[in-house]
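Journal club side-thread
Mid-discussion, someone asked how the predicted structure for our own chain would compare to the paper's figures. Pasting it here so we can look after the session.
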Amino acid sequence: MPLPYLLTLLMNFALYVARWLGSPWHTISPYTGACAPVWLAISPQPLLDDMETGQGKGKWGSATDARGRERVTRTEVEGWGWGGAVEDEKIVGKRKGRWRGAKALTAETRTEFEELGRAVWKEMEGLRGIWEERLEASALGKSMEEE
């Protein structure tokens, strides 16, 4: 739903202020926000695999500098840490791209994250099965009506 013009101006101003204060995640425009998804879609898989060698599977996001120049930046996933590697508490705050409240990934939190991921995936697969059954029933219903 579109915002009134004045609210749009105020929102954009607040996003610019956040960017000027150092937040790389306020891309503001759809063009800069699409930087990471497009880069991931067109990059060859061997390049992506090489970039994650030694760091584990990570999260890539669209970011900007204070002047608005877009870039793709690796960041962490809460509960998975930086690439899923168990970390030493001393390095957590020193890695570029980490948020200030980041916690070191422990073996226990990683196990919890993986179990949650399995449960979510299982639920999604169940929903996919229900959806496919409904589509099939809908297709059969239409074809029977046509006859």
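Post-session note: The mean pLDDT is 83.
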